[in-house]
Amino acid sequence: MKRILLLGGVTEALAIARTLGPEHIYSLAGVGRVPSDLACQVRVGGYGGAEGLAQFIRDEGVDLLLDATHPYAAQISQNAATAAQLTGIPCWALRRPAWQPQAGDDWRDVNGWAELIEALKPFRRPLFTLGREPLQHLHEIPPEQFWTLRALDVYPGNGRCEVIGARGPFLIDDERALFERRQIDVLISKNSGSTATEPKLEVARERGVPVLVLRRPILPGVDREFLTLEETFAALATTAL
Length: 241
Hints:
Strand 1 (4-7), helix 1 and strand 2 (25-28) form a beta-alpha-beta unit. With 241 residues, this protein is of the alpha/beta class. It is built from seven helices and twelve strands. The chain starts with a strand and ends with a helix. Helix 2 (49-60) crosses helix 3 (74-87) and helix 5 (172-182) packs across helix 6. Helix content is 29%, strand content 21%.
């Protein structure tokens, strides 16, 4: 029987974890809520890089590493691929496709924070949906801007930034109300490809609001790559679990 180490980070990972028995391990970085109703083991925390992950794989007798981390968690994915190579086990990855711009969209790709801040200069009421990353830059907000920042949990803002703690899926009517109430004139987003957070893009399209899209990082090659949860389940069904 193969023992799976599932690295979580996207919504689909929890769906996979719910199908795993007690011999398998669901690994979380520790951000957000930890599910308590799973049959599989749950591990929270880091490993100390690729070497630490490789040692954990050896110690626990893991036979298959399944990377279902966030598309922007490039370092974790690199560590997973390297650890699998070091231990001689296969590494699979669930990597959902990126969103594609549609007619009426005004998407502008940016690479990193410095480029993002430069692209933000013409705007006054940005909505950040990058998670916690902007929190360390609150002291840099120019006086002519007021930021709305949405993250999984509530964090302290300041006089020119309000932080909203909210978890998807988000309803389009709620997103419309948010854009209207805050008078959002630009949206900042990662291209996560998640249907749970896609309504914000539809509202931006409706209102003619530009979207600054943080480019996806390049992820390492793996033994098998899946684009959907269904593909992943089909592959797991052919593996002796």
